[in-house]
From TrEMBL:
GO molecular function, one term: metal ion binding
Record's keyword terms, sorted: Aminopeptidase, Hydrolase, Metal-binding, Protease
UniProt binding sites for substrate: H112, H211
Sites where the protein binds a divalent metal cation 2: D141, H204, E237, E269
Description of how the protein assembles with itself and partners: Monomer.
Gene Ontology BP, a term: proteolysis
Protein name (record): Methionine aminopeptidase
Entry superkingdom: Bacteria
Annotated a divalent metal cation 1 binding sites: D130, D141, E269
Length: 284
């Protein structure tokens, strides 16, 4: 016999009624909401946190070992060995054909650089190391910039302002705000400092899968885009270019993304959990 249910609940059953009621009000007003499946349960959040602990420890391990004269292949080996020794899996390895365990992106490489035994870190380089971890089926993701040897003041400033862009974006990612607020805050700070924001790549939901909804763009207009709700987990990872925001994918490997004008690019990435009062940084 068919049962009739009064009303449709949006949030998981263990979410507070106040959050459910507030979402329903926004829904009636026509706000764009994320899919229900991206609101994490307490069990999922705990699993994601455990994955995130390994991911952050891994970046700390890289920070302790990265140096002038090492190859990016050595960084890849560090990542694989550390991750697997902690009972986890490097999420990039074999993801859609990506051949390595980490992305290493130097100078004018924006992202998705593939580690190589012939690519040697030298004084003056800036490098983004992007690591993602699967632990007990839960995903985490973060990246940091590293400056090798004597780095020019211009590159140092780019790295610093890019980190500020990420931090400003995180500060804007509040419950009941809009994703456009996050993008606008990042874009304003980057352009105020004379830089550009890459348009063709974005942050993303992560936790149950490597890449989930929503897309988190790092440019935009305030008061637009999807509503940010408690229970969401996603990355904020602005890619900031010294010159034009235009990029291209290197046809030699169909992965490496480079700046169109050959000028340097920087990126920082944290993964956050939206809660009832703000957000929690899960990976850094």
């Amino acid at each position: 016999m068919k049962k009739f249910i009064k009303g449709v609940r949006f949030t998981p059953s263990n979410y507070p009624d106040e959050i459910e009621d507030k979402i329903q009000k926004y829904r009636k007003q026509g706000y764009k909401l994320p899919p229900r499946k991206v609101l994490r349960t307490p069990e999922q959040i705990e699993g994601i946190r455990e994955s995130a602990k390994i991911n952050t420890a891994l970046l700390n391990h890289i920070a302790e070992n990265i140096r002038e004269g090492m190859s990016t292949e050595e960084i890849d080996r560090l990542v694989y060995d550390f991750t697997t020794s902690h009972g986890a899996i490097p999420a990039p390895l074999n993801y859609e054909g990506f051949p390595k365990s980490v992305c290493t992106s130097i100078n004018d490489v924006v992202c998705h650089g593939i580690p190589s035994s012939t690519e040697i870190l030298k004084s003056g380089d800036i490098i983004n190391v992007d690591v993602s971890t699967i632990y007990n089926g839960y995903f985490s993701d973060a990246s940091r910039m590293f400056m090798i040897g004597e780095v020019s003041p211009e590159k140092q400033r780019l790295v610093q302002v890019t980190k500020e862009c990420m931090e400003i974006g995180i500060a804007a990612a509040q419950p009941w705000a809009r994703l456009g607020d996050v993008g606008a805050a990042i874009q304003e700070h980057a352009e105020k400092n004379g830089y550009s924001v890459v348009r063709d790549l974005c942050g993303h939901g992560v936790g149950i899968k490597f890449h989930e909804e929503p897309d988190v763009e790092h440019f935009g207009r305030r008061g637009t885009g999807m509503l940010i709700l408690p229970g969401m987990t996603f990355t904020i990872e602005p890619m900031i270019n010294m010159g034009t925001y235009e990029v291209f994918v290197d046809s030699a490997d169909d992965w490496t993304v480079c700046t169109d004008d050959g000028l340097p690019s920087a990126q920082w990435e944290n993964m956050i959990l939206i809660n009832e009062t703000g957000n929690e940084i899960l990976t850094y």
